[in-house]
What we know:
By secondary structure, the chain is of the alpha/beta class. It is 24% helix and 25% strand. The chain has one domain (2-229): Ribonuclease Z/Hydroxyacylglutathione hydrolase-like (Metallo-beta-lactamase, Chain A), CATH 3.60.15. The protein is built from 6 helices and 12 strands. The strands form 2 sheets. Strands 1-2-3-4-5-6 form a 6-stranded mixed β-sheet. Strands 7-8-9-10-11-12 form a 6-stranded mixed β-sheet. Strand 10, helix 3 (153-166) and strand 11 (176-179) form a beta-alpha-beta unit.
Amino acid sequence: MFFKQLATKEASLSYLFGCGSLGKAVAVDVVAGDEDWFLEQASQHGVTITHIIETHVHADHYSGGRALAKQLSANYCLHSNAPVEFDFYALNDNDVIEVGNVSVKVIHTPGHTLDSICLTVADNRRSEEPWFILTGDTLFVGSIGRPDLAGREKEMAGMLFDSLHNKILSFPDTVEIYPAHQAGSACGAGLSGKPVSTLGFEKRFNPILSVVDKDEFIISLTRDIPPRPAQMDKIVVANTQA
């Protein structure tokens, strides 16, 4: 298995990983302007990118995923309830994408947005158990995603609590997490500049995860919401329209 993380604009983190021996790969959360990096990396590793996945419709940066998918004739993947006006490869909870010897499982984790997903990844040559999770804007290193972008912050905060406590935090402490953003992003508050962690470390030291009462969690998460991303409405239109 090979794995690449790209730190890009707006404090975003993108990913390319897959099975080098069987020549298959997946790209996740591609930012506009970075398409050539994915093409170059795929060429270097001798792989074909078969799926390009968004962990949600982004509101802070322009996506390059659809353009890259069109260029490669790859599947452009979003959760099935993504609010977009074009055709895409629909993902649902518990779907599995096989990428050579690598398995990618979809976990629907609404809260930051209704279409948010996380991806568990297993290298089947080592173990069928998840090695790491791409947590999108659901769980960051040191923080979690903001719940207000849909204008229903208390309802969405409750969904985020359920997604975290009923799904993500049930995985073993040793599982690594790779989020879609690091410090400097407008998609959450208090993010670390370290672009990787483990579930065990976050359970111990991520302050919002220590709030185990759902009502208290909602109050804490909605108390001090940062300003909306710059040009958010314009970006969302570009990322959703045909």
